Backbone:
């Protein structure tokens, strides 16, 4: 039995099918015989430098916090695990959910959301990591050739982030596939379940700091927090002829909001984390201003030819940095600026 036939047997009627997938550009030859189109998307994403660099990008707490804190890569793997669990339970295409998960944060700036915010304040037209993730898979990856991913994977990557909007958006903000919607939920479940664990590991929180009301709902481990949200989501999601209508129960919605508020107050905005993220944001600001003010520096950037302006080149370069590369790069350009002119010039 070929891979498409096996996929057909495993999926609910409303799940995405590889046979119905499409790529922006035509490709020569058939898909690899042992991989569906969505498995091929996953293969291409995992074999990018952008994916490997996620290992050295901050998730919520920086590398200085502790050795066991999540990175952008481990967060991505946890999102993929949860998204596959949701997809399996609902009869969706696990391969598509995994491909979207693996690509969803490729364009995230270094230094977590502080890095994203500073780029958004500097780049003309603003900056979001989801749009940058799509730019990577479309144009920047593989030396500027792009990955030519299926339209379903590309849509899920672009629309995975809720921002300040509702978790399960409607209309144009909602992923076109149910697999993309599952990833959107999995992303939120992952960070709510695991950021608290990082804060405890780093000593920013102690067990007795956690309100009893949150412990009653979520338990006292990342596994119990994740399981509570996944279980509630699956129990509250209605299956219709058109497909699943994702929802958390009203009580879980309130508890998740309380958990976010608690983490904002006690962790994300605590002085130690805020100072570290502010320093990282200032590093990116300094690099951006240096590149956009120096034509020679901008011309030396990799893949500069894929950008229309110096500002776009700076955006692409900075968003692709790891935390440690950004620090080293700023030191290098400061050293070049401080170097005295050669004798006789």
Residues:
């Amino acid at each position: 039995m070929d891979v498409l036939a096996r996929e057909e047997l495993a999926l609910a009627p409303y799940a995405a099918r590889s046979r119905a997938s499409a790529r922006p550009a035509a490709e020569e030859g058939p898909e690899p015989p042992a991989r569906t189109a969505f498995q091929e998307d996953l293969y291409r994403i995992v074999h990018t430098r952008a994916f490997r660099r996620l290992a050295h990008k901050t998730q919520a707490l920086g590398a200085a916090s502790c050795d066991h804190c999540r990175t952008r890569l481990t967060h991505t793997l946890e999102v993929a695990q949860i998204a596959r669990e949701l997809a399996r339970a609902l009869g969706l295409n696990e391969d598509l959910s995994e491909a979207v998960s693996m690509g969803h944060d490729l364009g995230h700036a270094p230094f977590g959301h502080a890095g994203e915010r500073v780029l958004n304040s500097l780049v003309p037209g603003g900056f979001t990591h989801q749009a940058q993730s799509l730019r990577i898979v479309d144009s920047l990856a593989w030396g500027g050739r792009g990955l030519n991913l299926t339209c379903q994977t590309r849509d899920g990557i672009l629309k995975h982030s809720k921002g300040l909007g509702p978790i399960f958006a409607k209309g144009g903000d909602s992923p076109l596939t149910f697999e993309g919607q599952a990833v959107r939920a999995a992303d939120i479940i992952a960070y709510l379940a695991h950021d608290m664990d990082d804060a405890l590991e780093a000593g920013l929180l102690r067990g007795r700091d956690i309100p009893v009301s949150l412990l009653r709902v979520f338990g006292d481990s990342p596994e119990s927090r994740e399981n509570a949200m996944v279980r509630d989501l699956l129990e509250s999601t209605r299956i219709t002829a058109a497909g699943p209508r994702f929802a958390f129960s009203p009580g879980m919605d309130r508890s998740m909001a309380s958990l976010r508020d608690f983490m904002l107050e006690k962790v994300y905005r605590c002085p130690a984390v805020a100072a570290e993220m502010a320093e990282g944001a200032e590093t990116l600001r300094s690099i951006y201003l240096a590149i956009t003010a120096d034509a020679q520096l901008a011309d030396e950037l990799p893949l500069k030819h894929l950008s229309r302006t110096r500002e776009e080149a700076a955006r692409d370069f900075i968003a692709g940095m790891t935390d440690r590369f950004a620090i080293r790069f700023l030191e290098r350009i400061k050293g070049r600026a401080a170097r005295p002119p050669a004798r006789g010039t």
